[in-house]
Structure to design on (798 residues):
């Protein structure tokens, strides 16, 4: 099971935080800070796996991370997930973001964090991997966005009166 | 205008803040505005405000006042409001909040909505934060969706069912028939969800496991299809056809084949095929291969296949990619108990990994090395471990020392080697050892009678070099107090003897007593040792008396008590110049970290007098005084 998915930049500012187990707000922030602390210490050419910090479950859980330019993508998983599989999943996630945002960069994630959540919701659900086929994910996300746009368009005219 | 635009404005403003204080101010103003707008009637901006609140929540600011708004938005008929509402529910609500009960009805309605996207929102939220109550209520709905809907909904329903089974295990029976029928689907997403669901059901219920054993041929066929199929652009990841599904199926096969011969036989061929045909140059292939190896080792496979599997792991160990090395060590750890000899063959490579730059790889190598220690390789492996200890990262030191001690205890080839090893660890990393090390070492030294001379010489040398490591100093003081006569005699068979005078020894002990680095416990040891020496030396008894009496007015209560009692001993039994007592007092520190330190007096009193006068009654009086002291201390 995936316990949490975090995206933060090289300075530790969170760009996306999704927890699949409940923690209080303070604990969530502590987890983000601690994860950043652990991950930023790593060299460039070491392996992508870290034994988890004390907060998120101790030695049972692992942090699997990938560093792309200015962003760290970190998945905290327990022992029932395949580590190499999750590594591939991060790759699929990033490629999907790239397709959806046309050459994604950090600013896209900052200003469209809700869209990123929607894309993620098509890939991971309840801590479990849902869909890994990039095209399938993008099709669904596009359809949902279309639905949203069509709704606001219908309601556009009355609102302009206000 | 979609919700994101207003959100973007706010994000821009927040990012414009130059200091943390400014940012806090901006956010507080925004939150106040949002709160005010929540209180007003619906004005079309609710979803924007909630989106802004969620962003603020991600940055770490309190957002609990948005919970009711989530409930309201979920109940709205509009899709974009529902979407933000459900997202908010996943981020802000959990089963402990009362508000989460209020959305149960909305979810129920949305599960039968005409639009599949609304259904999917409800399923997603349910799978993330559904409480046991909600799961029980909505399970029949999920079962319906598992059977009759399109593949998009089916795959989501499957994972939702997994969450429900985790929350309420009894629901497993409800979902079993539907899960079985899902295996005949073509859509990979649905298959993936189905396999996860079946895995969860089998892990929880042995009867279900029996039932699904019959599905092994079907699963084997599915795997074969994936492995032997040509290039399929839809599911291809680095040349492997849907590695995620392959890994899941392999894991399920592992659970089904465990401890069962028929099932294991049915999958032998397949596993051999996968193991030989999978290209492991990319991560995807390695993931499948690694899962195959774990499955082979866990089921009742043929010996040829097992050998193949361990060889694959050995190949992984030598791979340049650190990820692969890490993974291979993790899997070797899982099989080291059952296939110890196979793993022993790779001991050299594993020990080399102890010197790797990467802390994660080092950690895995340490765990594996400790598991590989045996009576045969203890000497060479211990050399490597001690070398590792001198340069290991600080977070691993405590674990390494306790691992070394355990290994030494179980497989020490000789007592002298054991004592040497422990002393080496104490000098290298004495600050990171467990509390029971000191009494254990004292016990060990006591039993190694022929090594007393050797030990006391070694410890004396260590003591005069460095008194900062408390555990080492404590043991050294105890040893000198106990076997000081052997030290002063100036001869030793096992090692180069030191030529010390009584003054030198007392100097060393006094340095410990007076040093700022010594903890109160260490001072206690030093004081007792000084006292004990009074019976073993002849010329400097006065010096000892003066040292002891100084501590009669020490601030530390424990030391003061000891000093006063020892002083009393001096005064009362001064006339017994011809008699001497050997007192062995051993202290045991806190056990289990909970009970306070208890002094266990291991009173081995033996006394000799040259004259027979009053000796027995003296002995009894001494014994009584020590027993009463012991009882008094035990009662504190």
């Amino acid at each position: 099971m995936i316990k949490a998915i975090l995206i933060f930049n090289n300075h530790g500012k969170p760009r996306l935080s999704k927890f699949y187990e409940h923690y209080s707000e303070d604990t969530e922030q502590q987890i983000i800070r601690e994860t950043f602390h652990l991950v930023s210490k790593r060299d460039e050419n070491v392996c992508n796996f870290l034994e988890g910090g004390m907060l998120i479950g101790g030695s049972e859980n692992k942090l699997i991370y990938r560093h792309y330019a200015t962003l760290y993508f970190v998945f905290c998983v327990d022992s029932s997930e395949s580590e190499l599989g999750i590594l591939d999943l991060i790759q699929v996630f990033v490629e999907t973001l790239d397709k959806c945002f046309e050459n994604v960069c950090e600013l896209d994630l900052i200003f469209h964090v809700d869209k990123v959540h929607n894309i993620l919701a098509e890939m991971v659900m309840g801590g479990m991997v849902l869909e890994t086929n990039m095209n399938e994910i993008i099709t669904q996300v596009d359809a949902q966005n279309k639905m949203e746009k069509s709704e606001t368009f219908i309601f556009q005219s009355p609102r302009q009166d206000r | 205008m979609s919700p994101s635009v207003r959100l973007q404005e706010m994000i821009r403003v927040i990012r414009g803040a130059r200091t943390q204080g400014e940012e806090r101010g901006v956010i507080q103003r925004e939150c106040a505005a949002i709160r005010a707008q929540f209180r007003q009637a619906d004005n079309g901006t609710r979803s924007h405000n909630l989106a802004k609140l969620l962003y603020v929540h991600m940055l770490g600011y309190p957002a609990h006042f948005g919970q009711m708004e989530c409930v309201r938005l979920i109940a709205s008929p509009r899709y974009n409001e529902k979407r933000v509402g459900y997202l908010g529910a996943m981020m802000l609500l959990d089963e402990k909040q009362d508000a989460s009960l209020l959305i149960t009805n909305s979810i129920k309605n949305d599960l039968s909505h005409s639009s599949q996207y609304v259904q999917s929102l409800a399923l997603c939220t349910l799978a993330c934060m559904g409480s046991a109550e909600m799961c029980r209520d909505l399970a029949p709905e999920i079962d319906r969706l598992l059977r009759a809907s399109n593949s998009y909904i089916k795959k989501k329903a499957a994972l939702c069912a997994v969450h429900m089974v985790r929350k309420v295990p009894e629901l497993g029976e409800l979902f079993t028939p539907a899960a079985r029928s899902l295996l005949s689907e073509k859509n990979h997403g649905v298959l993936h969800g189905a396999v996860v669901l079946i895995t969860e059901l089998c892990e929880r219920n042995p009867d279900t496991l029996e039932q699904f054993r019959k599905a092994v041929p079907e699963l084997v066929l599915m795997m074969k299809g994936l492995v032997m199929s040509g290039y399929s652009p839809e599911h291809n990841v680095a040349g492997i056809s849907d590695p995620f599904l392959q890994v899941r199926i392999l894991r399920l096969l592992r659970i089904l084949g465990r401890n069962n011969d028929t099932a294991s036989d049915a999958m032998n061929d397949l596993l051999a095929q996968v193991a030989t045909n999978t290209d492991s140059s990319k991560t995807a292939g390695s993931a499948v291969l690694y899962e195959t190896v774990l499955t082979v080792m866990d089921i009742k496979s043929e010996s040829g296949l097992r050998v193949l599997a361990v060889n694959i792991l050995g190949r992984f160990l030598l791979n340049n990619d650190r990820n692969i090395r890490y993974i291979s060590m993790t899997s070797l750890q899982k099989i080291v108990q059952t296939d110890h000899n196979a793993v022993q063959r790779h001991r050299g490579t594993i020990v080399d990994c102890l010197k790797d730059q990467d802390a994660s790889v080092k950690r895995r190598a340490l765990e594996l090395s400790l598991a590989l220690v045996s009576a045969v390789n203890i000497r060479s492996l211990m050399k490597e471990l001690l070398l590792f200890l001198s340069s290991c990262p600080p977070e691993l030191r405590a674990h390494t020392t306790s691992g070394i001690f355990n290994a030494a205890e179980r497989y020490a080839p000789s007592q002298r080697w054991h004592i040497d090893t422990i002393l080496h660890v104490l000098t290298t990393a004495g600050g990171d050892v467990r509390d029971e090390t000191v009494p254990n070492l004292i016990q060990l030294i006591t039993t190694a009678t022929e090594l007393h001379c050797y030990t006391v010489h070694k410890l004396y040398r260590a003591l005069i070099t460095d008194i900062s490591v408390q555990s080492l100093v404590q043991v050294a003081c105890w040893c000198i107090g106990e076997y000081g006569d052997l030290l002063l005699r100036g001869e030793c068979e096992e090692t180069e003897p030191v030529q010390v005078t009584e003054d030198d020894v007392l100097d060393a002990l006094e340095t410990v007593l007076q040093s700022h680095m010594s903890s109160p416990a260490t001072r206690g040891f030093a004081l007792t040792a000084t006292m004990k020496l009074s019976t073993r030396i002849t010329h400097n008894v006065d010096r000892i008396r003066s040292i002891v009496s100084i501590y009669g007015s020490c601030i530390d209560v424990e030391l003061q008590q000891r000093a006063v009692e020892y002083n009393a001993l001096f005064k009362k039994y001064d006339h017994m110049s011809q008699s001497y007592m050997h007192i062995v007092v051993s202290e045991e520190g806190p056990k289990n970290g909970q009970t306070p330190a208890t002094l266990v007096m291991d009173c081995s009193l033996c006394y000799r007098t040259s004259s027979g006068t009053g000796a027995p009654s003296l002995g009894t009086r001494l014994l009584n005084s020590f027993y009463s002291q012991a009882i008094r201390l035990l009662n504190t």
